[in-house]
Specification:
This protein is of the alpha/beta class. About 45% of the residues lie in helices and about 15% in strands. The longest helix has 28 residues.
């Protein structure tokens, strides 16, 4: 019987000497473990002695002994003094066989409503004309490194331990001053909560304010990430078509039943780029107060306005009564930082914190502490000023290249803000097929139709911030060649 069991290993276990598959003892351990889990070696079955296994497999006895000791320690095998080596008797008789058919797992309705996975990764970000990418090659790394070391020396206990779910107090204080000065946001450290990026803020807001089936007014076209968060919370999306001035509060006033929430990007409408004028801002706020509608202001790239200073936030006009203000550092600093913030009406803070605590407890303290110093020392404002000059130049280069090489193919929508240009096809072609053709040419473009719900759109979104002028020029030429 022992010889027959050893013969199994002679037949299917072939040591791989030197290809990076692990040591021989690791390979033997894995082979026997898999045989037990699959039921090829039955519970209680006797195995050959270590000496016999070593002889039949051409392995050193010490190699076999080490593998067996691991399997005995983990409970796959048992060794009985004077009787020999056995497969553990308390394992299932059939082993742990994979199912014969790959049945779909039973997921919750909320999970089924969640969106599909989006393609990403560093390679996609580095290909022209990827969205959401900034000029990380000119980020002040040396300043950030100095502040990181300085922070760790000064307050290791504060930044390495468990943190406050609201966020580091120093960062919330720094943000209070920065947001008031740069965006006219009405806030205090008590109304700011630090989150793991704007997407987490949108997800938590949706779960805080909405029950399944609640109506939410959204821009059409609009930001897919916001719609994803709403859909995951079971919301019923009510598209409001944007015009040349953006979201129309008159449409909001006509909706019945009254939506519980309106989600919009007033400073730089995503993806088309227009700015909501003051008259509409005031009308929107009046409608929100009159009908008890919450407004979520996603101010994702408000810092980059090229025709003048950034506009006052909608939240500042409201005084923080009905508007929840969401911001992120992914665009102004770097996406890997994974830090964002939300400014909440005071009555919503406790409920938001309960959900935040349940979701991930707290945001890591060390990045928050570095960022707090970065803001307090004035580096954030200086960095944004430098980037505004650089991005204005790159935006101009992209627009000039479009006019030279694609003027009869694409019509750019002029916008005085943001990190991308929306360009519509003059011939109304299938923009998703065009995006695939561009991808095959090594470019990352987003089809405009992807962001629409009911409207028919045909165009491409072209990110420019991460790419030097010469690269933008050659990339437009490649894009035109791919499209033609």
């Amino acid at each position: 019987m022992a010889r027959r069991a050893a013969g199994r290993f002679v037949g299917w276990f072939r040591p791989d000497r030197g290809s990076g598959s692990g040591t021989l003892q690791d390979q033997l351990y894995a082979a026997i473990r898999q045989a037990v889990l699959r039921g090829e070696l039955a519970a209680g079955e006797r195995l050959p002695s270590s000496r016999a296994l070593a002889a039949d497999l051409g392995l050193g006895r010490n190699t076999v002994l080490v593998a067996i000791e691991r399997l005995v320690a983990e409970g796959y095998l048992s060794s009985r003094r004077g009787a020999g080596l056995f497969v553990a008797a308390d394992l299932p008789a059939e082993g742990v066989r994979p199912p014969s058919t790959a049945a779909a797992p039973a997921l919750s309705r909320r999970s089924a409503a969640a969106p599909g996975l989006h393609a990403g990764g560093e390679s996609a970000v580095r290909r022209p004309f990827a969205l959401g990418a900034g000029a990380m090659d000119v980020f002040p790394v040396e300043i950030w490194r100095r502040l990181a070391v300085q922070t760790l020396r000064r307050q290791p206990g504060d930044v390495l331990g468990y943190g406050d779910p609201r966020g580091l107090p120093a960062l919330r204080r720094a943000l209070t001053t920065y947001l008031a000065d740069s965006r006219g946001v009405a806030c205090s450290p008590e109304t700011i909560v630090i989150v793991s990026g704007a997407q987490q803020a949108l997800d938590l807001i949706a779960r805080l304010l909405l029950d399944p089936g609640d109506a939410v007014a959204v821009e059409d076209p609009g930001y897919v990430g916001a719609r994803d968060a709403l859909a995951s919370a079971g919301a019923r999306l009510v598209p409001v078509a944007v015009d040349d001035q953006g979201f129309d509060p008159a449409v909001l006033a006509s909706l019945s039943p009254v939506p519980k929430l309106a989600m919009l990007t007033p400073s730089h409408q995503f993806p088309l780029g227009m700015t909501l004028p003051a008259s509409r801002r005031l009308a929107l706020l009046a409608e929100a107060r009159a009908r008890s509608i919450w407004i979520v202001e996603d101010d994702y790239d408000c810092e980059y306005r090229y025709g003048g200073p950034p506009l006052q936030a909608l939240q500042g006009l409201d005084g923080g009564e009905r508007v929840l203000y969401v911001g992120t550092f992914s665009k102004v600093l770097f996406p890997g930082l994974r830090l964002g913030y939300v400014v909440l009406p005071p009555g919503l803070v406790d409920g938001f914190l309960r959900l935040k605590t349940a979701a991930d407890g707290f945001v890591p303290g060390w990045p928050q502490a570095i960022l707090a110093e970065f803001i307090a020392e004035g580096h954030l404002v200086q960095h944004i000023r430098r980037m505004r000059v650089l991005y204005r130049r790159r935006r101009a280069a992209l627009l000039a290249a479009l006019e030279r090489h694609a003027g009869n193919l694409l019509l750019p929508r002029l916008s005085e803000a943001g990190l991308h240009v929306a360009a519509e096809f003059r011939d109304g072609r299938d923009d998703r097929a065009a995006a695939e053709a561009a991808r095959a040419a090594g470019l990352t473009v987003a089809p405009l139709s992807r962001y629409a719900i009911t409207r028919r759109l045909s165009g491409l979104l072209l990110g420019f911030a991460a790419f030097p002028e010469a690269e933008l020029e050659s990339a437009i030429q490649r894009l035109v060649k791919a499209l033609r």
